[in-house]
Predict the structure of Tryptophanase.
Amino acid sequence: MELPWVEPYKIKMTEDIYISTREEREKWIEEAGFNLFNLTSEKVFVDLLTDSGTGAMSDKQWAEIMIGDESYAGSQSFLKLKKVVNEVLGLPYALPTHQGRAAENVLFSVLVKEGFVVPGNSHFDTTKGHIEFRKAHAVDCTIDEAFDIHDLHPFKGNIDVNKLEEVYKSHPKENIPFCLITVTCNTSGGQPVSMENIKAVKALSDKYGIPVYFDAARFAENAYFIKEREDAYKDKSIKEIVKEMFSYGEGFTMSAKKDGLVNIGGLLALRDENLYRTCGNFGIIYEGYLTYGGLAGRDLGALAQGLMESTEHTYLKARINQVEYLGNKLIEFGIPVQKPIGGHAVFVDALSFLPNVPREEYAAQTLAIELYKEAGIRGVEIGTLLADRDPETRLDRFPKLELLRLAIPRKTYSYNHMDYIAVALKNIYDRRNEIKSGLEIVWESPILRHFTVELKKSNSVSNVLNSSRMNDKI
């Protein structure tokens, strides 16, 4: 008999979590303005809000915490990180930042100006926020297959090169600072980008003289899918794939809290020395000196070790298998999810799940609230709230998919937790036709509203009237 597959690690420490009652959860979520970000952690049983900075670190990473060099300049911990960025990721210049959005802020402060357009594959929330804050425009060029949850295309994160070329043709070259490839593509369901597509985007961009950059938060998971799904790479190591992948770009921004396997940190890596020097000035202004960038030395050392570990196949197989296990359980229960299952999360199609809740009443957020009340599970909406308002019309932007994301922290929860999540969703699915109304906004910020929005249960009649009035203005 063949031995079963097991996780390639053992557990050294556990953390107690409080098991609340439904009555408590219903009270807490109403007090939180029906915004799951407003809940304090002790009120959450299984936290799937994000996989960003919420995972468990290895013993070797904790060792780096203990031996961190806290020198203001020239830290040995930074030199470890710089060596990994050069040797594993293939880029000579590294600017650490306190997290990924800070790396975006530094790079975009140099490259993105008012009136510019930044094409890519479904830019994520902070990326789009940084672009629109500068009065520029993010243009989504993702392939159409990404928005059909039943299509089994193996690389739904791919950029449609025809859409991309149309952007290149219809805008002056000087108004397109770069093309941004997000790996994996979070907003389309944690879906990977193929190496073939990366090469095609690079070739087209070279033709028009446009640089290519990566949003590399989940670069290692993307490399795993390339190894598993592209025949030309099945015999390549993850590190070989990663190095080739980044060879087609001029640099990347990274939230290191994902595939860096750390609890805090970001990274801007660049190929051009002059751009590095210019970005370095902004890094010093916004983050800290060049060799620490808003992080303690111990964090730099843990990140260097984490980047080494996340680019090992054994770790990635364990990571992605657990996500796939949850996705397959939900599929068995008939629950509509984005297929194939993505790298870091399972994405539930809220519009199919809750057919009686109008889009204007934020179906994905409604489903997220129902899941919390049912079982104390905190997910996150990837839908109309996150898509925000059009910066010019100030009307809601309705994305092609309205999703509830269940992001799985790395090496944190057991397979029993996955079963618990699946059954909780099935219980809601079994009574889905009883859920006929959603939520409406009480207060929102002018940008990135989903983090701080305050909501209340919808008055469906008034919402329909307001929606009609908004449509009259379009």
Remarks:
- The first strand starts at residue 46 and ends at 47.
- Residues 389 and 396 are 4 Å apart (CA to CA).
- The domain at 22-51+314-473 is CATH 3.90.1150.10 (Aspartate Aminotransferase, domain 1).
